[in-house]
Hints:
Blueprint: H1 6-10, H2 25-44, H3 52-55, H4 59-66, E1 73-77, H5 83-89, E2 94-99, H6 102-115, E3 120-123, E4 136-142, H7 151-160, E5 162-172, H8 178-189, H9 206-213, E6 217-230, H10 234-243, H11 247-254, H12 259-275, E7 277-278, E8 281-293
Helix pairs in contact: 4-5, 8-12, 10-12
Amino acid sequence: FKQKTAYEISLGLVGSEMCIRDRTIDDDHEFKIIRELKEKAKVVWSDFTLFENFTGTAAPKVVKFAGINANDRVLDVGCGTGVLALTAARLGAKVVGADLTPTLVERAIENSRIFGLEVDFLESDVEQLPFENASFDCVISQFGHMFAPRPSVALSEMLRVLKPKGTIAFATWPPELFMGRFLKINGKYGPPLPKSAESPVLWGDVKIVTQRISPYVENLVFDRNRIRLQGMSVGHIRGIFETGPGPLKNLINKISNEPEKLDSLRAEINKSISDYFEDNHLRLDYLLTRGRKI
């Protein structure tokens, strides 16, 4: 696949970035904030390797739901350590994985060697994908593209690189179930999002997803499935999130000198965990979305 040059990107010839000549001072300020947000995200998710075996259990279900076949050209957006891309590649698909975080791309390449599969992994932003129009038969994402700050830009790029009649499919966290509630709690106690960014959990709302994607796809289908995180108690599960990848670890460090706020945060998280904790595991239900590009 031919990658676009930095010059082409700067001129707005890739994706939905506004052209430099059309940007105002306010736009430039917001653009800088978004860029800083993405740099912070690279740090927040840099140790996601710790969760790859856990989230990897969803990958076969997403691949099956997407209907991926041998020889399909597939792009995995927000590929992380490559669990979804490699699962698709085992079927004989020709897969490319793209992720914003360099350390996760390095791990994905290592996983590819362990699998004994040829998958191209590269560092790339879903809001500026470095591929030609209509390059892929299928564009997929598992808990990845939903964290792009500007959903309209991310979706525009995913659809741009997808062939007509190609399949877009993804797994996301619904706002009313555990992971969505967990992310909203993190947002409540953390810094506010920039004005042009939207909460990632909105990608788990069927009504909002329909509004976002239905003008561009046909045969829109939704489904649900779940993965399970093992832990002996609610406290053990919370400890996994406090020390593992994601925003909570950084948030805990930032408010460690504010005991009342810290206790309140932990109480809310404990309540959310307890609502989905059973038989020494936490249930994490997710939304599946699939459509065919018009």
